[in-house]
Amino acid sequence: MTDSRSRAHTGRKRNAEARQAIIDAAIAALEESGEVTVQGTAAAAGVGRQTIYRWWNGKGPLIAEALAERAATTVPVPDTGNFRDDLVELLIASFADATANQRILRQFMALAQQDADIAAIAPDYAVMRQEPLRSLFERGRDRGDICVDADINVLTDLAYGFLWYRLLLGHAALDDYAARQLAATLLDGSGPAS
User: Fold this and answer.
1) 53 FRET partner, CA 20 to 30 A, in 126, 138, 169, 182?
2) Pair (83, 147) in one structural domain
3) What is the pTM of this model?
4) How many domains would you assign to the chain?
5) Which positions fall inside the HTH tetR-type domain (predicted)?
């Protein structure tokens, strides 16, 4: 971690280095103990609490942004030219990311049940997290790969509901086979292209 004394003054604008240190500190706290506090995150990042409050309204929005950013870097939207292959690839990557970050995601969900501030931003996190799949379905609809009246919100919720159910209960694997089976089910549910 960078020594805060060597970091440029953050001022009113977000300093990229300070921001990344804060994000990293929040993720580390989730991984280690599941307890994220503004004071602890600020200390670990080498910034003042006021810096965090200037950029986020509290720990809830900070955690949501940190998790969404982490997911966006590990789960890019593929574009092979084949919708089925893209869907399978995205689901495999999403499942692998969720499995690798299982402790963090479970901690986030537990915090959302106990902390009103985190519960309030959980829907925003879900929207950010679902965006890659939603955009893939929209592209598929625009290209005629799925039915023009397919309900993209329902398809997206089905996919992430499946992911979260298996992640939280741990009763079945989130592996490549599950991703392929889910993709087939989603494609059946989206109907033939019109």
Assistant:
1) 126
2) yes
3) 0.78
4) 2
5) 16-74
